[in-house]
Amino acid sequence: MDSTSRILQHIEKTQFHNLPEAVVDNTKMFILDSIGVALAGCNAPGCREVVYLVKEWGGKPEATIMSYGGKAPAPWAAMANSMMMHALDFDDTLDESALHAHVSVLPAAIAAAESAGNVSGADLINAVALGVDMVCRLGLSTNRPLSWIRTATCGTFGAAVAAGKIMGLSRERLSHALGIVYSQTAGNAQCLIDGGLVKRMQPAFSAKSGVLSASLAQSGITGAKGFLEGQYGFFHLYESGDYDRERLLENLGKGYGVMGLSIKPYPSCRMTHASIDAALAGKKDYKIEAGSIEEVVVHVSKMAREMVGQPFTIRENPQVDAQFSIPYTVAAAFLRGDVRLEDFERDSIGDVSVLDLAKKVRVIEDPSLPARDMDRSRIIVQTRSGIYEKDTIKMKGSPGNPLSVEECIGKFLKCVSYGRHENLKEKAPAIIERILHLETIGNIKALTALLA
Fold this sequence. Notes:
Radius of gyration: 21 Å
CATH topology of the largest domain: 2-methylcitrate dehydratase PrpD
CATH architecture of the largest domain: Orthogonal Bundle
Number of domains: 2
Strand content: 5-15%
Structural class: alpha+beta
Shape: globular
Number of strands: 6
Distance between the termini: 45 Å
Number of helices: 21
């Protein structure tokens, strides 16, 4: 049996009761985290405009638009919710592959579940776990440097898996859904480099495409069969055939991708986090005062240097510029003792003190690190009183240095508060309770009714 057939067989036969307990618990925690960052991101630049456009288009009221309320056709609701989930760059990551896993999968699964009308919490968990596993397997099996944004390219397949599982597609129909979504697979690094708001929309396009493709397959539309390993399949066309089939299938049905994900403690690109950790540790351990800093040299991997290591410049989208900048986030860490949601608002980004310190931060490539490494960073700080060094070996929030359940709940509450919707603040305890016991809910609408 070829790789694609084995994966499809696994997805078809796996039900909630087949999932290991740890996978269920982790999936619920990541659902909580993902919904929290979506509620926080509702007012981020671009989100309101997209929501208003979706509402203006109208259509069948199938799925809830989080925070704003109202319903839209399932593909458009998935797109809007995904954009809010990704807008603050506070959503989970697969550090080894530099991608976000739930941001396409979860909005697609929730929208499909609401559209279907009678989907349980257990079925939602199962669909999300399988969709996320698909995203992670694809991401981990690729070897090439970042050029395609794998959050989006791999995310389309995961979103289609989750939506197709919710819709109860047969193995044949699911294969067609994945073949159809492959025709919509895209996502590039150029918008990241240029600071465009569309960067936060690429996973949203994937979420929308996942729901649309599953619906088309359910209606009888057929797709490419060799969508992964065919002559012009994903691995050959997008990754130049440079992939690891063993990693794609490794521990299939026993190991799940959600177990390797990180929950972010800071609302910025994950490639900035090792440097933030080092800066905060240096500030605490050596009592470094921002005013005494003369220079900061940050040593990171080739990928981190290229993607987030350029001198900090404010362009047309200051929030995106700050989210993807080691100089800015390290300066904020030294100045403010943390890196918070508020640090990515326009006034905070334009603060002269942080801009002046960011100019003193120089990022260089460490050739001893793997090209795609995100976990490690070394900071060398030159102050008026001496030179200090600090290393990060394992980023906070990663499986090797995880946030506690209490810290995850604390992050969710901060996110809801940041969203500035008083009625959602009041509902927050009920939302937390329902997600932590999601497998007991008979209909997912008992949760989605609280999110508007």
